[in-house]
Amino acid sequence: METIQCLDHGYVQLIDTFGDELTIVNAARVSFGAEKRTLSEGDIKLMRYLYREKHMSPFRHVMFRFKIKAPEFVMRQLYKHVVGIEATSDSSFQLHGWNELSGRYKPINDFYTDFAWRKQSLDNKQASDGDMPAEEQEVWKRALDSHMESTLSLYQRMLNAGVAREQARMLLPLNMYTEVIWTASAQAVLNFIELRDHHHAQVEIQEYAKAMRTMLAARFPILAKIWFEPRHIEKSPCRILVVDTSHVPNDLVPAVQAEMAKFLRADDLFDTVATVAPEAKWYSIDPRRTNKEVVDILCDVKDTDINLDIVRQALDNKVLSLVSVFDQDADSVHIFSEIRKRLGF
């Protein structure tokens, strides 16, 4: 069984899998009474089509069984991907099994303590923003050690005195390690990886998502490529942004377009850039991005080498206008107003 270590004492272990990439296409082809015995290029195109058009049920015929050891606060985030799995027949998160270590049966004695303290982000309520200074690291490490020693001492006293384990465990902090066996469909696992192996996710859970991504890609390389590299899929549905430079003096158009291209391609949000007319540029956007992600990603470009002076001057002088079409999304005007505000334009 393949095991990848995570954090100080945690891990992800791939116990077993059921099915392969051919399982997915055969599940789809059963509608026509057809079955393949070897995977062809046509089957790969079919998998791309299924993913692109969000026909997800064939991906649920491939299963993974993991054993995961993680701190309680990480495991609660992971469990969000299990809740409500059998509520409806078209749920995106069907076919799960989840069994967890119980503090009613076994005393808890393993905790996540070897880490660096991070600063709270000032512009993102749920995120951290880099490590705290070295001198503060030591202060809070000693504080945690003291708290853990006191808490565990009381926990052990209660157990020794005969207090029920199911009640004594109420003392334990969220850095306690727990263990689960999680059985889930490929779709559910891929969805977890997609959401949690992301720079907006908490650092600790990113480690577990990266471990699962590595394991999945080793066993199912074609599936992983299709799911995680959607920008390489031709004719994928896209949302369009038009940058109108019709009022920009001709000699400035190349410079403005070059800077806007960098501005709008931040974090690979836009997968293609093509000039359709001297006065406009069109950009296709990963359709899975939410409106909030579009704003967050475009606002991250402050940290790049983009010449914002050119962009700002063009916007301030109203010689450059942003005209957006998000699948006819009425919120697009608000999105770009927010972008201008957060970038200081």
The total number of structural domains is 3
Could you name the CATH class of the largest domain?
Alpha Beta
**Major sheet strand order:** 1-2-3-7-4
Helix content, binned percent? 40-55%
Task: Give helix and strand order, one letter per element, not per position.
Answer: EEHHEHEEEHHEHHHEHEEHHEH
The best one-word shape is flat
Based on secondary structure, the structural category is alpha+beta
Largest sheet: 5 strands, antiparallel
CATH architecture of the largest domain, by name, is 2-Layer Sandwich
Spans of at least 5 consecutive residues with low confidence: 84-89, 231-244, 265-289, 317-333
Residue-averaged pLDDT: 76
What gyration radius follows from the Cα positions, in whole Å? 25 Å
Counting H and I runs of at least 4 residues, what is the number of helices?
12
CATH names the topology of the largest domain as Gyrase A, domain 2
Strand content: 15-25%
N- to C-terminal separation?
A: 54 Å
Q: Tally of extended strands?
A: 11
What does this protein look like?
This protein is of the alpha+beta class. It has three domains: 2-107 and 175-232, Gyrase A, domain 2 (2-Layer Sandwich); 118-171; 239-343, Alpha-Beta Plaits. The chain contains twelve helices and eleven strands. The protein has helices at residues 21-29, 41-52, 72-79, 134-160, 165-168, 186-196, 203-219, 221-228, 253-264, 291-299, 308-316, 332-343; strands spanning 2-6, 10-18, 63-71, 96-100, 118-120, 128-131, 177-185, 239-244, 270-277, 280-285, 321-325. Strands 1-2-3-7-4 form a five-stranded antiparallel β-sheet. Strands 9-10-8-11 form a four-stranded antiparallel β-sheet. The chain is flat, with a radius of gyration of 25 Å. Residues 84-89, 231-244, 265-289 and 317-333 have low confidence and may be disordered.
